[in-house]
Amino acid sequence: LYGKKAWAYTHHFPAAKTVWRGMIKMWRGDLTINVSVDNNETWLDELMADHVPCVIAVPSTEKRRQWRTAGGHRVRLCPADYADVNCASCMLCHTRPEDMAIAFRAHGTKSKKADVVLIKND
């Protein structure tokens, strides 16, 4: 893995401050493990204040390309959602600044069901 650039995502993250946060932060550099939060900017702010890399799922109706959370962290919509890029050419999930989360709009055949859950979490 050394010298390679890789990123991953996880929804399975302990809510309490534990050794897992330290392990996730430790990998920064070669491997970025992005913690996924389902449209919960309060949780996002808490994790990002602890320098944990995050991504956030947002409803398919989200119109903003970038915004700031109540805690002042930047959120940017995944560029592949509006530009001619893919993960390999973008790599924003791996190389972004520490104060920025990446947002992914609900998409695909189950996007309406996802919207119901995401709007409820809002």
In brief, what are we looking at here?
This protein is of the alpha/beta class and 122 residues long. Helix content is 30%, strand content 25%.
Can you put this structure into words, describing what you see?
This protein is an alpha/beta fold. Helices cover 30% and strands 25% of the residues. It is built from 5 helices and 6 strands, in the order βαβαβββααβα. Strands 1-2-3-6-5-4 form a 6-stranded mixed beta sheet. The longest helix is centred in the last third of the chain and has 11 residues, at 111-121. The chain is globular, with a radius of gyration of 14 Å.
Strand and helix map with partners:
Blueprint: E1 6-10, H1 19-26, E2 31-38, H2 41-49, E3 54-58, E4 66-68, E5 74-77, H3 87-90, H4 92-95, E6 100-105, H5 111-121
Parallel strand pairs: 1-2, 2-3, 3-6, 5-6
Antiparallel strand pairs: 4-5
What attributes does this structure have?
122 residues; alpha/beta; 6 strands; globular
Radius of gyration: 14 Å
pLDDT average, as an integer?
A: 81
Percentage of residues assigned to helices: 25-40%
Q: Got a strand count?
A: 6
Shape: globular
The low-confidence parts are none
